[in-house]
Amino acid sequence: MRAIYTIALTTLRELIREKLFIVIFFLAIGLLFISVALSNLSIWEFQRILADLSLSSMEFTALGIALFSGSYMIYKEIEKQTCLLLLSKPISRRQFILGKFCGLSLLLLLTLLALTVLMNIILLEPEYILNSFMIMLNIYLKVLVILALVFLLSVYIRPVISLLFGFSFYLYSHGINSVEFLIKKTNDDNLIAIHKVLETISPQFFRFNWKNYYFLKDAPDMNSFVIMTSYFILWIVFLMIFAVRGFNKRDIV
Amino acid sequence: MSAIENAIEVKNLNKSFRKSVFEKSKHILKNVSFDIPKNKTTGFVGNNGSGKTTSIKCIFEFIFKDSGDVKFFNQEMGPAVRRRIGYLPERPYLYEFLTAEEFLKFHLSLSGIHLQGAALNALIDETLHKVGLLEAKKKALRSFSKGMLQRAGLAQALIHKPEILILDEPMSGLDPDGRLMVKDILREEKKKGITIFFSSHLLQDMEELCDHLVAIHGGEIIYNSDLKSFMSQFPSLEEAFRSKQKEVQK
């Protein structure tokens, strides 16, 4: 555990000092302020527009960090061979990859926490505070599923492909219902069969999409919260098991 | 030489690579066997692409061997063995946003040594002083020159006071002063009884530093014994190595 902790903290330190992260973080803050400006255009729906735009900004910021940093992280370690120094130490490949994952997860958590606090300051609604953190956790876990997926893919394929695949997977998992509706209209049996397979092997993000004003006002019940948390954690564990297994067998040429 | 006198024993190591599924696999290491005697400095010499780095990577299990056996003090590679080794890869790329101090603390902690406060600072200062980087302690590695990075890499290999040093091209990319410094460090470590195994193209440096020599050509070991015998009939290591290569090619 100590090795994972050490690698995670160093990864976090590295990422925070990277220009890409600083740019994305300030872009997110900028988006929150744009949300304020846009919501001011509406007299009646100020809070709804502000909350919806802010929560979407938070999710896309976290997703951007996860996709870009996640897909390049392991690839860069292997390509630049920085991992050789670490793997020559008494640590396992499992500890290395989990340390990297935890470091990036910590960065995402800190980013989302900062943006949630900022959103609450902008909203100035004390009764939304607890719910906003519940939604933040929902966004965080969803993004961690994508992060675990790009970690797994980047062990095998080029980062650009894993980034694109990760983003497509995110879109598909949110829009399974809409895709199903469209595919059924085509009456193409092959497409329907492909969709069935994809639906089965994809996390159902659309069932737990809480990033809107409705959930900020009325939080999901505890039962839904426990199911959502367990469901995403299981996905993360499942994907990371395969990422570790893949990395354990990979030659670092 | 009895088994106990060897720090590392490599036996019948084989490794093949295939660039893609459409290509035939290439046999890179062919029954590679050699010994690294304890408390001695061993040089690993061979042309580009002869299999030096692949052999070192197989020893560390960065690359998985097809067959063969590697023993460290009669033990298999594992965490206990890794704790006793200091390693510097060829052209080390380091975490460039860390300072030299943070970088060494990180590697010391991963080596399983958890010092705190004054003892930790003293060890870091001592190691940075040894590689001539004490002045750059608080500087980020991204501002380092190639030679400075090489020395920072060497510092992480030395900081946990290993019993074996395995260095892949430790002198490459260094200016004459840097090379001299690395050679002095290796001599100092040798005096302490550290087993050193390093690969290099710079045969003159090898001649100065090594007691034992392992020569590889086309993935096969062509020599594995003491340096003096290898050079006995030649004025320099370079000529001895060329002659051995020609002999093998015939």
Poorly predicted ranges of chain B (pLDDT <50, ≥5 residues)? none
Order of helices and strands of chain B: EEEHEHEHHHEHEHEEHH
The low-pLDDT segments of chain A are none
Q: Which structural class is indicated by helix and strand composition of chain A? A: mainly alpha
Radius of gyration of chain B: 19 Å
User: Which geometry of chain B do the CA atoms define?
Assistant: globular
N-end to C-end Cα span of chain B: 30 Å
Largest interface summary = A-B, 25 and 31 residues
Number of helices of chain B: 9
**Helix fraction of chain B?**
25-40%
Query: How many distinct folded domains of chain A?
Result: 1
Mean pLDDT of chain B: 89
Walkthrough of the structure:
The complex is a heterodimer of chains A (253) and B (250). With 253 residues, chain A is mainly α. Chain A has one domain (2-249). Chain A contains eleven helices and no strands. Chain A starts with a helix and ends with a helix. The two termini of chain B are 30 Å apart. The relative contact order of chain B is 0.17. Chain B has a six-stranded mixed β-sheet, sandwiched between helices. Chain B has a three-stranded antiparallel β-sheet with strand order 2-1-4, with helices on one face. Chain B is α/β, with parallel strands linked by helices. In chain B, helix 6 links the parallel strand 6 (164-168) and strand 7 (195-199).
